[in-house]
Amino acid sequence: MTSVLESPVAIDESAPEDVSAPAVNTMKAKALHTALSDAVLFTAPTTARLPFLEAVRLEFGGGQLVAVATDRFVLGASKAEYLGEAFMMMVAGPDAKALVKMAKTAKRDEKTREVTIEVVDGGAHVTFRFSTGESILLRGVDVQFPKWRQLLPADTSRMGGIVGMGYVPAYMGRFTKARAEEQATGSMMVVFPSVTSSGKPGPTAIRIGDDFFGLLMPVRPPGDEWTYHRPGWLDVDVHAAASGAAEAR
Questions:
Q1: Contacts of 90 (CB under 8 A, 6+ apart)
Q2: Distance CA 23, CA 77 (A)
Q3: Amino acid 137: pLDDT
Q4: InterPro entries, per this entry (predicted)?
Q5: pTM for this predicted structure
Q6: Which has more confidence, 57 or 197?
Q7: Span 55-111, pLDDT tens digits
Q8: Contact, 212 vs 188, CB < 8 A?
Q9: Which residues contact 224 (CB under 8 A, 6 or more apart)?
């Protein structure tokens, strides 16, 4: 559930001398919008009735925000710069979309518009206050997100040993929308197919620039593997046949 604060709220900034001031958590609104809008692309629809896959996991800390989501068939993790304390929260899909909408920033304001993030109860309640006056309170949802890092290939040891991979076009299409501005200016989508420990087609790792990493799960082949064959119709050249017949006359 979200609560949008449309008017300024008076805040008592005084504090007892023996109480340390809370950490100031800040980031650019543009950066928040980029990371979160990337992750939202990979959430499950509400029709799936799987709340833990409809949510977005936000991991703050170490100088970065990592926003990640998965619907079991695709996974997307997007990074943005962040300064402040470390905490994690799970954000319901509708709330994540509301925050994306609020974080959207005009081109002229991208360098100056910031968001201050106020954390209560370790991420159970988080308020995002924008320097342009808007605020939104998000309540974290209590769901168990998959151990997503364990799904990511650690190295190239299981790559390069397979020729054919099957993908659902609609799932592949989501990656064309991630980091859209970077892709529009030349960033490549680099894919790394892998195999499982049993030699079957495994997830394909996808990188876009330096700050986006995703996984695309393969379609199971009809047999043990996808077999390559060149379709016979490619070798039917009626124009060459007609030309040869004309030369023979």
A1: 52, 55, 56, 57, 58, 140, 141, 142, 143, 145
A2: 26
A3: 96
A4: DNA_clamp_sf
A5: 0.81
A6: 57
A7: 999 999 999 999 999 999 999 999 999 999 999 999 999 999 999 999 999 999 999
A8: no
A9: 200
Residues paired with residue 127 on neighbouring β-strands, in sequence order: 118, 137
CA angle 182, 63, 84 (to 5 degrees): 125
Return the structure tokens found at 63: 């100088």
CA pair distance 172, 180, nearest whole angstrom: 14
CA distance 157 to 161: 9
Average confidence score pLDDT of the chain: 86
Query: In whole angstroms, what is the distance from residue 81 CA to residue 92 CA?
Result: 22
Note the Cα 157 to chain centre separation in Å. 25
pLDDT at 196: 83
Half-sphere exposure of 45 (CA within 13 A, CB side): 3
Helix, strand, or coil (residue 16): coil
* CA–CA dist 130, 121 (Å, integer): 21
Domains defined for the chain, CATH in brackets:
2-7+21-139 (3.10.150.10), 150-216 (no CATH)
Q: Are 87 and 123 in contact (CB under 8 A)?
A: yes
- What CA–CA distances, in Å, run from 146 to 69, 70, 192, 243? 9, 9, 22, 62
Bridge partners, residue 160, by sequence = none
d(CA 64, CA 69): 17
Higher pLDDT, 249 or 178: 178
Question: Is 189 in a helix, a strand, or coil?
Answer: strand
Taking residues 217-234, report their average pLDDT. 83
The angle at the Cα of 167, spanning 213 to 218, to the nearest 5 degrees, equals: 70
- Alpha carbons within 13 A on the beta-carbon side of 118: 9
Q: Which residue has the tokens 């495994």?
A: 202
Place of tokens 């995703």: 214
